[in-house]
Amino acid sequence: MLNFNFEDSPEGEFIEAIIAAQSQLERQQNSRQVRQKMRARIINGY
């Protein structure tokens, strides 16, 4: 997690929203990758 103080301005709020959205995307991609790997292991008999 970033340790950053966002400005109390429209620009600061925009940057905060972009960083939050990027973090959410990374979490969702990681979750998808884990599910795919688990499924592949089940199919392969592990």
Q: Would you give an account of this structure?
A:
The structure is a single chain. The protein has 46 residues and is an all-alpha fold. The chain has one helix spanning 10-43. The longest helix is centred in the middle third of the chain and has 34 residues, at 10-43.
SSE layout and pairings?
Blueprint: H1 10-43
Write a compact overview of the structure shown.
The protein is mainly α and 46 residues long. The protein is 74% helix and 0% strand.
**Strand composition percent:** under 5%
Mean pLDDT: 91
Distance between the termini: 34 Å
Radius of gyration, taken over Cα atoms and rounded to an integer in Å: 17 Å
Shape: rod-shaped
Order of helices and strands: H
Helical segment count: 1
Helix content: over 70%
How many strands? 0
Most strands sheet: none
Helix and strand composition category: mainly alpha
- Which runs of at least 5 residues are low in confidence (pLDDT < 50)? none
